[in-house]
Amino acid sequence: MGAVSRQRIAVFGAGAWGTALAQAFSSTHDVRLWARDMAHLQTLALTRENRRYLPDVRLSDTLVFEPDFAVAAQSADLHLVVTPLAGLRETVRELHRLKPRTPLLWACKGLEAGTGRLPHEIVTEELGSDAACGVLTGPSFAAEVARGLPTAITLAAADDHFASRWVAALHQPRLRIYANTDLVGCEIGGAIKNVMAVAAGVSDGLGFGLNARAALITRGLAEIARLAAALGGRSETLMGLTGMGDLILTCTGDLSRNRRVGLELAKGSTLADILRDLGHVAEGVSTAREVVALARRKGVEMPICEAVDALLHHGLDARSAVERLLARDPRHE
Fold it and tell me: What stretch of H or E contains 104?
């Protein structure tokens, strides 16, 4: 399929990932970036730098900072929502009110607090099953994307034509995008890898070593694949960018916020203090509770997620959480 002409893209959410995607796409498209915090947006416009979330990255002169949500929505050929997952439903609902039937992408990962919904389920509830929409996900640290370092991610949509069209429009030499139609597999991989990263951070922080980390990553991938299959996802998806790729990056990379949560828990810091000092959303914290509940409803065994949930929300100490996993009875792999 040939390349799509220059598009008008509105990006909603000026955190690290929203800013990075806006920066990347502004080289080939007309991009407006909106943020809920008007003071933050004004600072971005004045300094051409997101010092709060992406320090030391000079933002493109072609990137427009738009304070008016309605103007951003109504002027766009594509809506790209990069809020935390907690803001996805409200944002999609308002976009639909302002400019219905505009193609939509989101870059949120996790499970909705209280409902356990995946992002595509939230969007379907708000827009209907025939909406032109999809998710951008995969192994990517915002700071590297913003600096133009080579990255490969996935655009997943139920409609293969939609996925192919927007891959053609957004794909770049240093931000390579691959189409997929397995929304469930892609989103489960993107959600649960954050929980696994907390476990890997705890293990590393306690000095359990590289062997233990490799075991956690490998068994973590098995847990993710089991739940994805129970929800209708494809096993081969979890062997690709949004499964194994995203899991390895988040469990091993020093830029991972969820891994950092685990490292700090291993030091004995409280979760409240960690999240306050982090300054970013760590989706694995809320996702752990929801994925355990979802797994129980589906009858899927997920011991790593259960240990992380117990550590984060039920008072289990870090060393006991990891030792509980390492002491599990032997079984066939």
Answer: strand 104-106
What lies within 8 Å, CB to CB, of 222 at 6+ separation is: 333
Q: Beta strand 151-156 with 133-137: parallel, antiparallel or unpaired? A: antiparallel
Which residue among 99, 193, 267, 298 is the active-site one?
193
- If you ran DSSP here, which 8-state letter would residue 243 be given? I
Fold (topology level) of 8-181: Rossmann fold (3.40.50)
d(Cα 64, Cα 49) in Å, to the nearest integer? 12
Measured CA to CA, the distance from residue 23 to residue 40 in angstroms comes to: 16
Helix, strand or coil for residue 65? strand
Q: What is the token pair recorded at 216?
A: 């956690």
Please, where in the chain does CATH 3.40.50.720 lie?
A: 8-181
Binding residues: 13-18, 36, 53, 109, 138, 140, 142, 193, 246, 256-258, 281, 283
Q: For this structure, is 193 an active site residue?
A: yes
pLDDT in tens, 254-308: 999 999 999 999 999 999 999 999 877 789 999 999 999 999 999 999 999 999 9
Q: What is the pLDDT of residues 174-189, one digit of tens each?
A: 999 999 999 999 999 9
pLDDT in tens, 119-166: 999 999 999 999 999 999 999 999 999 999 999 999 999 999 999 999
Instruction: Kindly state the average pLDDT of the residues 203-214.
Output: 95
Q: Other C-beta atoms within 10 Å of 254: how many? A: 8
Q: Does domain 192-326 have CATH number 1.10.1040.10?
A: yes
The segment(s) of the chain belonging to CATH 1.10.1040.10 are: 192-326
Q: Is the pLDDT of residue 325 over 90?
A: no
**For 46-61, what is each residue's pLDDT tens digit?**
999 999 999 999 999 9
Going from the C-alpha of 144 to that of each of 46, 90, 174, 261, the distances in angstroms are: 23, 29, 10, 20
> In the predicted model, what is the mean pLDDT of residues 97-113?
96
The span from the CA of 139 to the CA of 121, in Å, is: 22
Residues placed in the known binding site for sn-glycerol 3-phosphate: 109, 138, 140, 193, 246, 256-258
